Amino acid sequence: MKSQAPIKRRTLLQSAALAALPLGAGAQSANFPQRPVRIVVPYTPGGSNDVIARLVAQKLQEQWSQPVVVENKPGAAGNLGSAEVVKAAPDGHTLLLNNINITSMNPALIERMPFDASKDFAHISLLGTTALALAVHPSVPAQNVQELVKLLRERPGRLSYASSGNGSPQHMAMEMFKAMTKTSIVHIPYRGAAPAISDVVGGQIEMTIGVVNQVIPHVRAGRLRALAVTSRKKLASLPEVPTLDESAAPGYECEIWLGLSAPAGTPAPVVDTINQAVRRVMALPDVAQRLNGQGIEVLTSSPEQMRQRAADDLKRWTEVIRTAGIKAE
After folding, report:
1. Could you give the 3-state DSSP secondary structure of residue 49?
2. Is pLDDT of 36 > 80?
3. Level-2 CATH architecture, domain 35-129+256-324
């Protein structure tokens, strides 16, 4: 007859582990959510952040049988809504649709942040990534990136690009392109992506790097010419368009990641419960299909993986901002 000692030992270890959990942690996890959950999107409706937040909210609501409400709180380059989440009760019922701008660009750009992006969030999971597309007005005499770089070197400082604002991912992406190709292009910041792209379509500005789903309709209609994408691999939504890495700037990569975060201090069991629910949602075929149609590629993670990605990107973009001499407005 086999000894029961190993079984008893495992039982004792499991009991000790449970006893080590904070008081009520298991109950918090098992009963979550206990009331409606709010997802704050720190930008205006209609963009990639809003699209993914509303889809995730719908699917989480179906899982939890509790309302999951999306609230748009734009302002201060995403810091306004983010600061509201930081101050919320750390119980998992107030979440932030977080992104690379809030955690990895703003802290390097803005001298006085209203919160510490590296300490004030309990990250839950990445949700997806979206690339940008370098596009020019059809009047620009460049059919590919190599020709554009040649043109820019022949006419330094004479062509302009539109971005969705000073310090935006679009601004950062183009500044990195300029640095890597040793070119000079005048930056024209706008208040949002829509007016920026509109003026490129209208021919007032020569080029832009825009979020893929906002550029594609104009490319399909012939109003813009897409020369490259900023991801490391080609996109299914623009299969004919090369990457900047392979065409003119080896090593270039800029993807905007989106994720879900809670206030710091949210109990780990609650974070894990939300993480598991989010991963189930993002694994649904209809979710991937709808997001792919918006130029968003599904990507989930552990809380630690999301924290590490934010930290790595902060280091990388701090160097880009320092080199380009970018200052917040």
Report:
1. helix
2. yes
3. 3-Layer(aba) Sandwich (3.40)
